[in-house]
Automatic annotation (TrEMBL):
Gene Ontology biological process terms, A to Z: cell wall macromolecule catabolic process; defense response to bacterium; killing of cells of another organism; peptidoglycan catabolic process
Source organism: Holtiella tumoricola
E.C. no: 3.2.1.17
InterPro entries documented for this protein: Bacteriophage_GH24, Endolysin_autolysin, Endolysin_T4_type, Glyco_hydro_24, Lysozyme-like_dom_sf, Lysozyme_dom_sf
Keywords annotated in UniProt: Antimicrobial, Bacteriolytic enzyme, Glycosidase, Host cytoplasm, Hydrolase
Name used for this protein in its record: Lysozyme
GO molecular function: lysozyme activity
The reaction(s) this protein catalyses: Hydrolysis of (1->4)-beta-linkages between N-acetylmuramic acid and N-acetyl-D-glucosamine residues in a peptidoglycan and between N-acetyl-D-glucosamine residues in chitodextrins
Length: 233
């Protein structure tokens, strides 16, 4: 398994990206997306600049070499769990998996893993261990991603087929009644077909992107499913 675009974007959101070398609060020369190693064999120093493409290349190479291997050792992770732990590891270092966190991962107690992740939201400020808002936000984002279920394309197609075969009108109420766990992600499937971001009770989105009164019917969704299947099949 490798980190996905979702995981990369999570890291970028919290690390930021500086294309000109700078010293981090700890006094370490840094560039790109939190990169502190060398760049093409050269030490990072004042005046060094890189491109956005180079920054992302450095991040991926660094993750692959140092921060993904510790996460790959854990069995039974889905993509979201893997991405969340790689982001966590990149922020705190490859030796972070120990103690209660390690025990929770090995026991596959996913709820406890999320709890343990959220505990790492403190840093020393003037020698005092202090909760930092930025770290709290990052830990919350990582914990939420860790617990977010992954539904593959085939599962989504099955979920939509279930709705079609039921013959009911397609709206928020009917989706939720049938199978909330599987169907809550179907709007993401429809979004792939042309900008449908959500299903709204009594509303449909027309070809011109305008919400109008109505319901998604059996035939509406059948048509969408056929289009979707042709794109992914």
């Amino acid at each position: 398994m490798k980190i996905s675009k979702v995981g990369i974007n999570l890291i970028k959101e919290f690390e930021g990206c500086q294309l000109k070398a700078y010293k981090c609060p700890a006094g370490v020369w840094t560039i790109g997306i939190g990169h502190t190693g060398t760049v093409d064999g050269k030490q990072i120093c004042v005046g060094m600049t890189i491109t956005q493409e180079k920054a992302e290349q450095l991040l991926r190479e660094c993750l692959e070499k140092r921060y993904e291997p510790p996460v790959r050792k854990f069995s039974g992770l889905n993509q979201n769990q893997y991405d969340a732990l790689v982001s966590f590891c990149y922020n705190l270092g490859p030796g972070i998996f120990k103690g209660n966190l390690l025990n929770a991962i090995n026991a596959k107690d996913w709820n406890d893993v999320a709890i343990q992740i959220r505990l790492y939201n403190k840093a020393r400020v003037n020698g005092v261990l202090t909760e930092l808002k930025g770290l709290t936000r990052r830990r919350d984002a990582e914990a939420e991603l860790f617990l977010k279920p992954v539904i593959e394309d085939e599962e989504l197609k099955k979920a939509v087929t279930k709705i079609i075969d039921s013959g009911v009108q397609i709206n928020d109420a009917s989706w939720n009644r049938l199978d909330r766990i599987n169907l809550k992600n179907v709007p993401a499937l429809l979004n792939k077909l042309g900008g449908i971001d959500s299903l709204v009770e009594g509303k449909v989105i027309s070809n011109d992107g305008v919400w109008r009164s109505g319901n998604y019917t059996k035939e509406n969704v059948r048509s969408l499913l056929i289009k979707y299947a042709s794109k992914v099949g």
